[in-house]
Amino acid sequence: MTLKTTYLVQPFELHRNRLRPARQEPAQSEFGALKKAEALAARMPGAAALRVVADDETGELEGVTILGQFGSVPDDFAESLSGG
């Protein structure tokens, strides 16, 4: 089992007065994800920087960590990542 760490930015947009996820964007590093999330939140309602650890061979998710949140993020965002 080989674990691979990737970094993503999850921006949020308003749709019918509710926040919903927009298209995720990849980042090269933790620092890059934080900077990109902060920049996106300046022109969108909000964004979150994420670290995703998954098995490189099977794709099985090992864990998702929120590195930072900027602007408006849904109240249940962290809960939705943990599957709860």
What features would you describe in this structure?
By secondary structure, the chain is of the alpha+beta class. 20% of the residues lie in helices and 49% in strands. Strands 1, 2, 3, 4 and 5 form a 5-stranded antiparallel sheet that branches. The two termini are 26 Å apart. The mean pLDDT is 93.
Tally of helical segments? 2
Query: Strand count, sense and closure of the main sheet?
Result: 5 strands, antiparallel
Number of strands: 5
What is the global morphology? Answer: globular
How would you name the oligomeric state of the polypeptide chains in this document? single chain
Q: Calculate the mean pLDDT score and round it.
A: 93
Separation, N- and C-terminal Cα atoms? 26 Å
Q: What low-confidence regions span 5 or more consecutive residues with pLDDT below 50?
A: none
Beta-strand percent range: over 45%
Measured as a percent range, the helix fraction is: 10-25%
How many whole angstroms does the radius of gyration measure? Answer: 13 Å
The succession of helices and strands, N to C, reads: EEEHEEH
Class by SSE composition: alpha+beta
